[in-house]
Amino acid sequence: MKNIVVLVSGGGTNLQALIDAEKSGIIQGGRITCVIASKPGVYALERAASNNISTRVIPRSEYADVAAYTKAVTEALIEEKADLVVYAGFMTILDEQIVKAFPYKMMNVHPALIPSFCGKGFYGLHVHEAALAKGVKLSGATVHFVTEVCDGGPIILQKAVPVENGDTPETLQRRIMEQAEWKILPEAVSLFCQDRIEVVDGIACIKE
Ligand code: GAR
Fold this sequence. Notes:
The chain is an alpha/beta fold and 208 residues long. The protein is 35% helix and 25% strand.
């Protein structure tokens, strides 16, 4: 059984999707052993606690810079014996120290079809605002490995979702969560826990 540690910063609906997927047997070969939040009081922590998952809060505001914060998070992940680290709405930038400690062992869910609407400044509702401003007719979600390049690591799974007339950033966000994020994130986690993802020359391949 692999130890899955989930990093969160907010409401935690993707964390909830992972908890539900573990309960219903969609995630094979792993279990969520700890949830780490970048700020206190976020609802994701309540979701973890009410499912008897241990929690830690490592407040970004208590660290002087990215390097000091990354060191603290990396040490916590090592203490927790994390086999897989999932960024589930984790809104804090970490540096390369953590990538060296967990190479191709960290995945992130991004609410767009990478390489569109990704990179620095594209997070949360900003992503959907940008997609609507461009007038794209399809958006979606991507699960990818975390590397030094923001939103640039090997793509594991993607799912497209239609943009509808009259969409607001909020309605598009909700549709992408329901139809894409909450499905492909647990699926990618399960593939990882079954050792079915291989990265060859920077490309993630799913083994049958
Ligand atoms: C999700 O839409 C996730 O894809 C996005 O933030 C939301 C978090 O919601 N993440 C990013 O934008 C990261 N670049 P949640 O806390 O309810 O899971």
